[in-house]
Design goal:
Layout (H helix, E strand, L loop, with lengths): L1 E4 L1 E4 L2 E5 L8 E5 L6 H13 L6 E3 L4 E6 L1 H6 L1 E3 L4 E4 L4 H54 L22 H4 L7 H9 L20 H12 L3 H6 L6 H15 L1 H4 L14 H45 L11 H31 L12 H8 L2 H14 L1 H19 L1 H56 L4 E7 L2 E7 L5 E3 L6 H19 L6 E7 L7 H16 L5 E6 L2 H10 L4 E9 L2 E7 L8 H14 L5 H4 L2 H13 L6 H11 L8 H9 L6 H21 L5
Parallel strand pairs: 4-13, 4-14, 6-12, 12-13
Antiparallel strand pairs: 1-5, 2-3, 7-8, 8-10, 9-10, 10-11, 14-15
């Protein structure tokens, strides 16, 4: 708290020594206009703001300023093209400016975000179009592999391509197929229905090499030699057999007579036995030749069957092998054809031998390599390979389909990588924008919370105004901290008040706001609150002047914290503040002598008597009753009643209570309520001259009765 001011050197104060003046918690600075009240207030304010505390004697280390003057009042009200509005002051401008700046930044960020999202959408669209192209090219090949499944555009489209396949990590693993591999996969068709092929097994032909060797030996043998060979165990018997055969062969020469004894050769029993033996050998030899012929004929039959088998099964369309099947088949058919020729040649030699059994110079020249080529394992191995593949064919087809899908993706990996890079890049930018937007929006939320608190305090202003002053004026919110003024019309409906407030109403509203602002801040500040009210009763009629004094006294001056300086030039204001706060206040009168201001501390304050003048003005109005005079005396009715109440009652804060007590005290019938008197005082309603005259007459009667009661002494 400021106890003393050592010296005042400001405007009309010329190094004025004020060290002898001691200030109280409530200080009333009284003086006529132009005497230096505002100069003293601004001097204190400026030095506090500049932290120039050396000129003061204080009991506090710091101060928090709350300053009310005409500039403060005017700063509260803001006008736009449509209507007058109330604009919350005290840093709200900076808060709104800050919010507007943040909102502009948010708008720019959102615009930038929209552009980034457009780029992301473009990249995604290009990627989607690329996926559609990949799907179309893939489907064209897949339709050849599996025509049943991939026969419509819907069978494989962009939605079937997993986005995971297009990620940078996955797509880098895919490779483009070589031309040969690609063509090979295309040739494997799911609907060809490849079957297991039963291998061809030779029966006779597989023994043909051994058969050729045996027939070659047989062709060099004769039945005769075979028969004689039976007697080789005994030389004499062998010679005898040879002789017998020789005789038999020469029997025609001998005319079937034995050259030794002349007997008929056919009748010789030894010969019969030898003939019988010879015939048996011959028969067996011929049978053996027949069997050999059958063997070779059966081999030819088998080769014919083998030819049919090759032509039916060993073809490209039925085999799942990569070799040149047609070429190999033709090669084997040629081997078979040559082999058949060789075998027929052998059969011809057998027939010749059968005609000449004892001819021993028959020789065959056969190429066994032909038979070996046919009997090798090449064909069988290829069939086995086919059969193994056939069992995994469907699985291979599915794997090939995946290879084809990856093949077309891999062909576009550079474009996919480009789009992925753009999308990732723009998404990172978008993520950063979202982070900044989140911070900005949080800031807006914090500001809105502050504004909400201010809105609540503004509602308190409406509440105070209704309770203490007017119930026909309110403020309706139209935006952040902006309120439009509304009034209540004669139909009891609210309408926008385009012309705003009168100066007196502005004073009331600004005082109420200033008070509520102070009350909302006092709990937060640690310094000593220093409150300056420079002429707070400006442009007010008597009734509202009293209300403001009562309001300030009740709401501000009764606070436990703070030091107050109230500057006024109005005697009644000074008097009423003095009466309401006599225990904790001091009155200082400021006067100017020879253009220099001085300060005098008053021990007391005596109000000049203007009661008589007011009473005469009311009587004059009753006498003439001019309509236009009603405006002049509208404030006099309550004013003169308040003067009377000040005489009889100590506590005059509540006019209604004082009014009722006054009538009761002097046993006066209440023709009008206190509100009726105040409605007249407001001057807001349609003026009814007769009604005003009757109210004035009632007040004059009250004065006369009290005067008579007091023997003419007031």
């Amino acid at each position: 708290m400021i106890k003393k001011i050592k010296q005042v050197n400001y405007k009309s104060f010329n190094n004025y020594n004020s060290s002898g003046l001691e200030f109280n918690r409530i200080n009333i600075l009284y003086g006529r206009n132009g005497q230096g009240k505002s100069s003293l207030v601004n001097f204190i304010k400026d030095n506090i703001e500049n932290n120039n505390l050396d000129i003061f004697e204080t009991s506090s280390n710091g101060f928090s300023l709350f300053f009310y003057d005409t500039d403060y009042k005017n700063s509260l009200f803001y006008s736009n093209d449509k209507f007058k509005t109330f604009y919350i002051a005290d840093d709200i401008e900076n808060i709104i400016l800050e919010k507007n700046k943040i909102c502009k930044k948010i708008k720019k960020l959102k615009e930038f975000k929209n552009k980034i999202e457009e780029k992301i959408n473009t990249a995604n669209k290009n990627k989607k179009d690329l996926k559609s192209t990949i799907a179309k090219n893939t489907r064209e090949v897949l339709s050849k592999i599996d025509s049943n499944k991939y026969n419509t555009p819907q069978s494989y489209q962009s939605t079937h391509i997993d986005d995971g396949y297009l990620s940078s990590e996955k797509i880098s693993l895919f490779e483009v197929l070589s031309y040969d591999e690609f063509e090979k996969i295309k040739s494997m068709k799911k609907n060809l229905n490849y079957e297991i092929i039963k291998e061809f097994n030779f029966d006779k032909f597989k023994q043909i090499e051994n058969g050729v060797k045996k027939i070659d030996e047989m062709l060099k043998q004769t039945p005769e030699n075979n028969a004689i060979d039976r007697f080789k165990q005994d030389n004499d018997l062998e010679n005898l057999a040879r002789l017998a055969f020789d005789i038999k062969n020469k029997s025609e020469m001998y005319k079937d007579k034995c050259p030794l004894c002349g007997q008929n050769i056919l009748g010789v029993k030894l010969w019969e036995k030898l003939e019988k033996h010879f015939n048996e050998e011959y028969k067996q030899f011929i049978e053996r030749l027949g069997k050999a012929k059958n063997f070779f004929e059966n081999s030819i039959t088998e080769l014919g069957n083998y030819t049919k088998w090759l032509n039916e099964h060993f073809i490209k369309t039925k085999l799942l092998i990569d070799d040149d099947i047609d070429k190999k088949r033709q090669e084997y058919l040629l081997f078979i054809e040559e082999s058949v020729k060789e075998i027929n040649n052998i059969i011809n030699h057998i027939e010749l031998k059968k005609q000449n059994p004892n001819k021993n110079d028959i020789d065959i020249d056969c190429d066994l390599n032909l038979f070996q080529r046919i009997l090798n394992d090449d064909i069988q191995n290829l069939i086995k390979q086919h059969n193994r593949k056939q069992q995994t064919y469907l699985k291979d087809i599915d794997e090939n389909i995946e290879k084809i899908k990856k093949h077309f993706i891999a062909k576009e990996k550079d474009n996919v990588a480009l789009y992925n890079g753009l999308i990732n890049f723009y998404n990172k930018i978008k993520e950063k924008i979202n982070c900044v937007l989140e911070k900005r929006n949080k800031h807006i939320v914090d500001i809105d919370a502050k504004l909400k608190e201010m809105d609540q305090s503004f509602q308190n202003l409406n509440k105070d105004m209704e309770e203490w002053f007017f119930n026909d004026i309110c403020f309706e919110k139209i935006g952040d901290a902006y309120y439009k003024i509304q009034r209540l019309n004669f139909n009891n409906k609210w309408f926008d008040c385009d012309k705003g407030l009168s100066e007196g109403e502005k004073t009331i509203v600004s005082i109420i706001y200033f008070t509520n602002h102070f009350l909302s801040k006092i709990k937060e500040i640690k310094e000593c609150p220093l409150v300056f009210l420079d002429d707070p009763i400006n442009s007010l009629d008597n009734s509202n002047r009293d209300k403001i004094i009562n309001y300030i006294s009740s709401k501000l001056l009764k606070q436990n914290r703070g030091q107050f300086f109230i500057a006024t030039h109005i005697d009644e204001v000074c008097d009423k503040f003095n009466k309401k706060n006599s225990d904790t206040q001091s009155i200082f009168e400021i006067k100017k002598y020879a253009n220099q201001s001085e300060i005098e501390k008053l021990a007391g304050f005596k109000l000049n008597n203007d009661f008589k003048t007011t009473h005469l003005r009311l009587c004059e109005y009753l006498k003439f009753g001019k309509y236009e005079d009603a405006f002049d005396i509208s404030g006099d009715v309550r004013f003169i009643l308040e003067k009377i109440c000040n005489i009889f009652f100590k506590n005059t804060e509540n006019f209604t209570d004082c009014y009722d007590k006054l009538l009761s005290k002097f046993d006066i019938i209440k023709k009008y309520t206190a509100n009726d008197i105040q409605d007249l005082n407001h001057g807001k309603n349609t003026i009814n001259s007769d009604e005003i005259i009757e109210k004035v007459r009632f007040v004059v009667e009250i004065i006369d009765k009290i005067r008579n009661y007091s023997c003419g002494k007031l």
